[in-house]
Every structure is written in structure tokens, then in C-alpha cells.
TrEMBL record:
It comes from Lacibacter sediminis. Residues 25-161 form the Activator of Hsp90 ATPase homologue 1/2-like C-terminal domain. This is SRPBCC domain-containing protein. Pfam families: AHSA1. Belongs to the AHA1 family. CDD domains: SRPBCC_CalC_Aha1-like. SUPFAM superfamilies: Bet v1-like.
Length: 166
């Protein structure tokens, strides 16, 4: 079923990027991988970087505060605000760069997004749509290596499923 490829579509007119990936894993496991910080920490950062959670409150109005930790222990902080949550279907977010206390950095793009999960034969399809305030903001994210980074992350998640670690 799965081609195990991350399909990425950028639309600069709509200021959006859509990622689609299928995983050979049950929907409940894929949902957990995207919503539980102890699992996110295992795959969210593109190696050799890794995600390290400072706090997570997965409910509408809550947020995930984490650092992307580099091989020299560099830390770049990010915050994912949870807007709405429909258990095992989708969750809407606001995604931003911030400081270690969660204060949003206004100099970097803030995006709005929707992560949807669909059961398919043999697995789960994830669609991840992010919308940016301007074309320049989307270009900034592209220039920062978003596509390569998220592709590596999804490959890492795929390995966790294949090795039955989730």
C-alpha cells in the first residue's frame, strides 16, 4: 500500500505547503506518534538533530514546547499551539519559533496548520497542511530546509513503525 514517500506540494499563491505520507501502521499508533511528546522526541528532529520536549499539554489551548537539539548541543526552540483536536481525525495548530520560555519570535514565520489522519488499507495516511502569512514567510521556511527536514523526520518515524518501537 504505502509508497513510503513524502509528497510535498508548495503553493506560493496560497502561501501553503501540503505534505502527504502513508505509514504502514494503525491509525491509533500514528496518532500517538504525532500527539505524545515521548514519541515525538524519537522522530521529530531530522538526524543528527533531535527534538527534546520541555513541556506538552495536548488539548485545545495547550501547546508543545520543544527544542531542536543539534550535535553540538545547539538549541532552537519551537512552540506548537493546539487550536482544535478531533481525536484520531485531525488537530489544528499554530506553529512558531520561540525562546526557551515559549515566547514567540516575531522575526520568524508563524504558520497555521491542520494535521489530518485517515485509515487506509494496511495503514494510515497523514496530510499535513501549513499556511503562512506571506509568500516570503513560506520562502523563508523553504530556505531553512523544511522539506528535507520533514522528509527525514517522516523516514525516522517510518523506521520506528517498521521496528515495532511504536
Amino acid at each position: 500500500m504505502s509508497t513510503n514517500k513524502t509528497n510535498i506540494t508548495k503553493d506560493f499563491k496560497e502561501k501553503s505547503v501540503v505534505l502527504v505520507r502513508e505509514f504502514e501502521a494503525p491509525l491509533a499508533d500514528v496518532w500517538r506518534a504525532f500527539t505524545e511528546s515521548q514519541l515525538l522526541d524519537q522522530w521529530w528532529g531530522p538526524a543528527p538533530w533531535r527534538a527534546e520536549t520541555k513541556s506538552q499539554d495536548f488539548r485545545p489551548g495547550g501547546f508543545w514546547l520543544y527544542a531542536m537539539v543539534g550535535p553540538e548541543d545547539q538549541r532552537h526552540w519551537a512552540r506548537m499551539n493546539y487550536i482544535t483536536i478531533n481525536h484520531h481525525k485531525n488537530f489544528e495548530i499554530e506553529d512558531a519559533f520561540c525562546d526557551e520560555n515559549g515566547k514567540i519570535n516575531p522575526e520568524l514565520p508563524v504558520s497555521a496548520g491542520n494535521n489530518s489522519f485517515t485509515e487506509i488499507p494496511g495503514g494510515t495516511r497523514v496530510e499535513f497542511k501549513m499556511i503562512y502569512p506571506t509568500e516570503a514567510a513560506l520562502q523563508t521556511i523553504v530556505d531553512m530546509g523544511f522539506e528535507q527536514g520533514i522528509t527525514i523526520c517522516f523516514e525516522q518515524l517510518d523506521e520506528l513503525f517498521k521496528n515495532k518501537k511504536i
